Amino acid sequence: MNTKLKGLLTLLFLFVQISFAQTKTVTGTVTDGSGVPLPGVNILVQGTASGTQSDFDGNYTLEAAQGSKLAFTYVGFAEQTITVGNANTYDIQMEAGEALDAVVVTALGIERKPRELSYSVQTIDDDALTKTRNVNTASSLVGKVSGLQINTTNGGVNPSTRVVLRGNRSLLGNNEALVVIDGFQSSRGALDRINPNDLENVSVLKGANAAALYGSDAANGVLIITTKKGKGKMNVTFTTSSEFSKVAYLPEVQDQFGVGGFPDGTLRPLENVNWGPRFDGRMVNASETLADGTALMVPFSSIKRHQYNFYNLGLSLRNSVQISSGDDNGSYLFSLDQTNTEGVIPKDAYNQTNVRLNSTREIGKLSLRTNLSFFRSYSNVVGTNNPNSQIRPLQWFIINTPLHVPFSEVKNYQTGKYARNEASYYRFYENPYFVVDNNRNMTNINEFSFINNFKYQFSDYLNATLNVGYTNYNRGYKENHGRFNYNFHVPDPYAEISEYGAQTSDDDYISRRLNSDFIISFNKDIAQDFSINANIGQNVQVREEKRVSVGGNNLIIPDFYHVSTRTGNLNSGRYSSAEYSSKYRKFSLYGDVTLGYKDFIYLTGSGRNDWTSTLPKANRSFFYPSTGISFIPTSAFPDMKGILNYLKGSFSYAKVGNDPDSYVTNETFSPNVTNEFYEGFPFGSTAGLSFSGRATDPNLKPEFTKSLEASLEFGFLKGDRISGSATVYKTNTTDQLTPISTSYASGATEFYTNVGEIQSRGFEFDLKADIFRSEDFSWNLGVNYSLMGSKVISLADGVDELEIGGPYVDNSGYGAVIKAKVGEPYPLLKTTTYQTDDQGRTIVGANGNPLPASDLEFQGKTTPDYIVGLNTTFKYKNFSLYAVADYRTGHVFYNNLADALEFTGLTKHSVTSNRQPFVFPNSSYADGNGGYTANTSRPTTDGGNNFWSTIYNGTKSNYVTDATVLKLREVSLSYTFDQNLLDKLGLTDMSLNIYGRNLLMLRPSANVYTDPEFNFDSGNATGFGTQNQSPYSRQYGLALTARF
Amino acid sequence: MKKIYKICLLTMALATVVTGCTGDFLNVNENPNDPTVSTPDLTLPSAEQTFARLNATSMTELGNYIMYNWSVPSNWQAQGDLFRYNVTTTFYSTIFETSYGTIFKNLTYVKNYEDPTGQVEYSAYDDIANIIEGFQYQYLVDLYGDVPFTEANQRTANLTPKYDDAETIYKAVIDTLTNAASSALNLPDNAQDPGSQDIIFGGNMSQWAQFANTIKLRMLVRLSNTGQDSYIKEQIASIDANGAGYITGDVVANPNYSNNDDKQNPYYSYYGFQTSGTRQDRNNFTVATDYTINYLQNTNDPRLERLYAPSQNADEFKGAEQNINQPGEGFTTKDLSQIGPGLLKSSAQDQPIMLLSEALFLQSEAVLRGYISGDAKDLYQQAIAASFQYLGVDDTANPVDEYYAQDINNVSWDASSNKYEAIITQKWIALNGTSSIETWIEYTRTGFPANLPTSKSAVESRRPVTLLYPSSEYSRNQNNVPARTPADAFTKTPFWK
Question: Per the CB < 8 Å rule, is A743 touching B333?
């Protein structure tokens, strides 16, 4: 990989070379073994920084002094060296060699050959990221690299993701990988926002080993993103795509029984719960009876694909243009990318614009690079309903529309005779169309980034770099909730939702980051066989954030959403505090050295010292080292080459220190928030301050992750047609910076301290194979496998479990939560469950109903045992077919959507006994003598509402579901137009691409409800789905790319 | 090569200079969002408010459902755990968790606070903190049995406090109350007056002493079955000795409740209405039981229309049995009686902590048991009158006299065959919707009111007698929390039973 980058660099250095050597012009053609011209071969004048790249027809031209050596390198071919003699033309025939010798970008933008690295780095090039035109760059990394787990936590127009490398290391702290863009440490969200067309490549540094030089932020691995630079004659690339989204995999529901149920199976046409009789087609009311005695009448029978009818066909249009040019003196690249999306949920819309200007300039020994980027997005999506009502997401209102009520008939909630709110079917919850119209969340994001890089080349082996970046991120959020009122009342309503007023809240959030690195690099062959590469550097980081939020209730003018037109007090909107700000600062010194002997053994050592603002003064400075070795037997003993073409073994050890968030060492008081209530001080003139439940440790220390890694990289056959790597690793994170949950009786509910240890171990295997390669047809296959497990070694004394999170942690009575437990993998799902006897049978009471156990029990871990990713490309002449799939298994998740469906009587299992009492499967009851008798005779009290939505639903272990899933993530078929045609059109390149994303999802039969990947948020508490999600959708698109 | 050394040297020098400056550069870790200090006058109201809220919400709800005063209509699915007596480690765990995690936490801060200048004398705050703690510890012991006490609330000094014996805690609390009452009555001259920052008595320390005496009386009456009459009488003597007597009015909290979001009376906002006047969901799903409506009707009790509201549909008083599965017709919210105007008065209403009627019933029983001197019948009738007054029964026609003049068992003192039963049954009516948790505990102690039905949805027709320790204790304090089984909720009676 990465010849482009190297070529580009050699280009940059050309100027330097010209200025001090007596040279002449050397030309020639580079071909492969069969005489086919090779474009893009790197040609370097050895011992200098000057070089070039062969053009499309394999031709090259460069300036070189007589007697100098030219090195020709190309992926998959052995390096060739010639000495410039009297001749001016040198044609070179490359021989297939080792594929793994191209450079990769490692920490701090330092380029290394993989053979020099004692840890695993993998690279994904731009091509693989843009195949299916994913708006979200993070999602397009799925399935492409081992050890990388990306969860899309929600569907919708602007999905958010969670990106974790090698599993979780921290209990409650950040586990997500660091994102570095052009040497600038960015916020995690930047990966969701960057324009994938701008990417040159993404290097994935998986472990702490790879990342010691980035410091504490890199303990979770690093994604190093390099953006493109302009090159060649001025060229313009234009890409346009149209994409459709269609809802798929909505929950499967029972379609036998309809509305009603009180007291037992009675038909109640205006009920929202389906505990009534079987659908029989009789005509029933689907609205209240109006004063004129009429009502909407519909057949009592289930509508096919009922829920699907609510959703629209989503449409996304995307256009991008990229202008690029570059020569020896400088380059520029300008890109503009614009996406407009209409979601599958009516009225949901999203648009985003990315603008980038990358420019470089060479002035003597000084190189300058400036990258400016601007991101803007606007999303307008449906929110939950009015907080004065039950706070529920849209999905809830849809599943509370029974199967016999056609969405088409209830749409007009404003003026429809039977559909209007006064009369409509919706007696308990709002009409989903009302929700769509009246509850809107609008987010405006503006992000401006400026990255400036100065590099001064003192000599061919010494340079200094200053890399300074600054980002300003601004997010404006407005949340509106419409008024619900009645203009009249029907004479004898079955039920009525209470009226409520409109609300609004507004908040503005700004964050600023400054990152500066100053590095001096030394790179020289110090003796015949010895090379040395050393860097020392210094880093400064400054981060600041500020948020202000306001809210107002009972707005006096409907549809005018401003906090000033309200009654009552101004409140702090969606946050507990109207004002928030924070500051973070860090200063670091670091260095690393790599010593090489010949080209087959390399030793590396690095060290870094951080000074952070967030630890107590005595502990704010901390040092951590790393070391590693790599050995390439195939270079050391050339005789062993045969079928095995390349072999590298490496071993490394690294330690990384981590600091806490700002202010965790402060014990504070707050006027309004206590343990679970919002106390609302001040009350008039009465002020109050409540002590924080979080106790803090005045001697807080940094947290350390120690990581051991051993890996083998190999290439088989000529040109490394089969290549790959296998890695084992072990990391131990000790002195975790964690607010540990403590006994309420201690008077502190949390203690923020250094506590406990987590160990993660894993095995990763990546394999790439050119299975078939000929002029017309080729087939490549890539497989990656990640086995991973983390274990909680210890927590605080006397504390066995730690709450990680869950959407209902404030409601301890809910009965399902994500936890960590000593001696167990992490995270774990813990729920309420039934009492069981010694044979594992569920114990039923005298009335035949299963008895709940008194305490919650663990149900399994929520991260997979292993992930397998597959990607493959078939090429036939001008056609190329590309597909990515991944499979995850060995974990469970909490199926909150099925839990919600239980209430409405829509779950599949609720009809298994035909709504009649039944003997609870595999159950027993106490025989009165301390033993248990198999239950064959005590049926449950009920087989309808009373049983399922109360007794069964009260035991949350019923919703723990196998999270195994196989997904076909991306498929793309592209056609590249013939050169002949392009010449006529005056184009350099043109291709047409038909693609699909999320085409297939295979799940265990028990999960007919949801995508197990969805989560209530993107934090550490993975494995907890919610009703609050946009449905899973498939995308199909068509893209045209033209370059001229 | 010289050049390189110079550059290296320069860099190191630069690094050293920058490192030297890092001290100031890094000193930005003072939290700008929340203050790191408070004083007793700021933290006491917070503790008092949470104390009022916990009693007004979870504790009242639990008591009123277990004591069969409230039910749920057919059009709502709610309170299933209450109907099933599904007492687990997550069932009303907030009573334990909020008591320690919020109320005691803040009160302990108040007690531990020492004025850095030494100018302010905070003993009035300490006394108030001790009295509120005494009130709440009594309920924790009554509801849970052994609980953390001697090692509780020490924060990082002891994150896993041990559990102390229930009876030992009771007696320690009684001693604390004795001392707090006496201290409150003999404050140093320079003691700071909490004034309006005390949202219960406005800094009136003799009222705090009365309240301490009354809590102590409640605890002593609770011990009546334990054969410790001499201890009880000894303690009564110390109450008499401080001379403050018992409370003479309803003990209520009110920091300045108003009809604004988050500023409403906690009971009113929990069971009643939003600031816009919209009914809360809980208001819509909380209705009267058939038994209680019938009981009040059969005894011609005018408090009926104060405790419950006539149904929205038929303007009649109607209740539903406690059953997850209500009958089909006529049992929706609008068909049934909801919470009445005597309980839901206004968003600014005072929040009861202990009603005068409760104190009078306690005194009546104490007289009957020979602990204190007085007229048991008179105290009983005064207690009923105080209840009428709190609930706002129209007193133009002297309804109280009329009520207890009726020749009905457990209404008229004279007509009551068992005076204890009359007192406890009347207490059940008087504390309906306010200190209902007390009526459940008194039921456990006495078995009154007799013949009170149990929920139709319960697995067995017996009422729980205790709560199980919260799930959080089993995961965070597992070496100390006593083991419990689901059956313990029905069999493990308090030590004083």
Answer: no
Pair A351, A378: CB distance under 8 Å:
yes
Contacts of A669 in chain B (CB under 8 A): 34-38, 42-43
Contact A324, A233 (CB under 8 A): no
ipTM field: 0.94
Q: Is the Cβ pair B3, A800 closer than 8 Å?
A: no
Contact yes or no for B29 and A663 at CB 8 A: yes
Cβ–Cβ below 8 Å for B460 and A390: no
CA distance B244 to A398: 63
**Among the partner residues B22, B34, B75, nearest to A587 by beta-carbon distance:** B22
**What is the nearest CA distance from A671 to chain B, expressed in angstroms?**
8
Find where tokens 């109360």 sit: A950
Q: Cα separation of B188 and B205, whole Å?
A: 12
- For residue B473, give Cα distances in angstroms to A858, A894, A985, B427: 16, 23, 75, 33
The pTM of the full predicted model, rounded to 2 decimals, is 0.86
Subunit contact A686:B196, Cβ cutoff 8 A:
yes
Angle between the N-to-C axes of helices B436-446 and B123-144, in degrees from 0 to 180, rounded to the nearest 10? 50
Which amino acid would we find at residue A1026? Answer: T
Residues facing A186 on adjacent strands = A179
- Answer yes or no: are the C-beta atoms of B6 and A458 closer than 8 Å: no
Collapsing DSSP states into helix, strand and coil, what is residue A994?
strand
- Under 8 Å between Cβ of B285 and B394: no
For B7, list phi and psi in degrees, rounded to 5. Answer: -65, -45
Chain CA centroid to CA B4, Å? 76
Please name the residue that has the structure tokens 């290391």: A169
Q: Is B46's CB within 8 Å of A667's CB?
A: no
How far A846 CA sits from the closest chain B CA (Å)? 7
Distance of CA A434 to the CA centre of its chain: 32
Strand-pair partners of A630: A602, A650
Cis omega (within 30 of 0) for bond into B399: no
Nearest-angstrom CA–CA distance, A885 and A867: 11
What is the least distance, in Å, from the CA of A390 to any CA of chain B? 8
The chain B residue lying nearest A494, using CA atoms, is: B332
Q: Tokens in use for A1003? A: 């799940």
- The pair of structure tokens assigned to A768 is 């790439």
CB within 8 Å: B486 and A584: no
CA angle B367, B368, B374 (to 5 degrees): 30
Mutate to test the interface with B, among A575, A617, A690, A925 (most CBs of B within 10 A): A690
Residues of chain A contacting residue B272, judged by C-beta atoms under 8 Å apart: none
Farthest-apart Cα atoms in chain B, separation: 115
Measured distance CA(B3)–CA(A1034) in Å, rounded: 61
Name the CA radius of gyration of chain A, rounded.
Answer: 32
B-chain residues within 8 Å CB-CB of A847?
459
Q: Coil, helix or strand for B98?
A: helix
What average pLDDT values come out for chain A (1044 residues) when binned by 10 residues?
Answer: 43 38 77 71 74 78 83 74 84 65 67 79 78 75 80 75 81 82 84 85 80 77 88 89 91 93 84 93 94 95 93 93 90 94 94 94 93 95 81 90 94 94 92 95 95 92 93 96 93 86 94 94 87 92 95 90 91 87 94 90 93 94 93 88 88 91 91 66 92 91 92 86 92 89 92 90 92 87 92 85 80 83 92 93 92 91 93 90 92 92 93 93 92 94 88 93 93 89 86 90 91 83 82 90 88
**Least CB–CB distance from B33: residue in A581, A665, A678:** A581
Round to whole Å and give the CA distance between A200 and A127: 9
Searching chain B, which residue's CA lies closest to the CA of residue A583?
B28
Q: B112, B136, B116: which is closest to B40 by C-alpha?
A: B112
Residue A269, amino acid: P
Could A747 and B105 be called an inter-chain contact, meaning their C-beta atoms sit closer than 8 Å? yes
